[in-house]
Amino acid sequence: MEILITGANGQLGTELRHLLDERGKAYTGTDTHELDITDEAAVNAYFEANQPKIVYHCAAYTAVDAAEEEPGKHIDEQVNVVGTTNIAKAAAKVGATLIYISTDYVFDGTNPGMYTENDQPAPKNEYGRTKFLGEQAVAKYAEKYYIIRTSWVFGLYGHNFVYTMLKLAETHDKLTVVDDQFGRPTWTRTLAEFMDYAVEKNLDYGLYQLSNENSCNWYEFAKEILKDTKTTVTPVTSEQYPQKAYRPRHSIMDLSKVEATGFKIPTWQEALAAFKAKM
Ligand SMILES: NC(=O)c1ccc[n+]([C@@H]2O[C@H](COP(=O)([O-])OP(=O)(O)OC[C@H]3O[C@@H](n4cnc5c(N)ncnc54)[C@H](OP(=O)(O)O)[C@@H]3O)[C@@H](O)[C@H]2O)c1
Question: Into how many domains does the chain fold?
Answer without folding.
Answer: 1
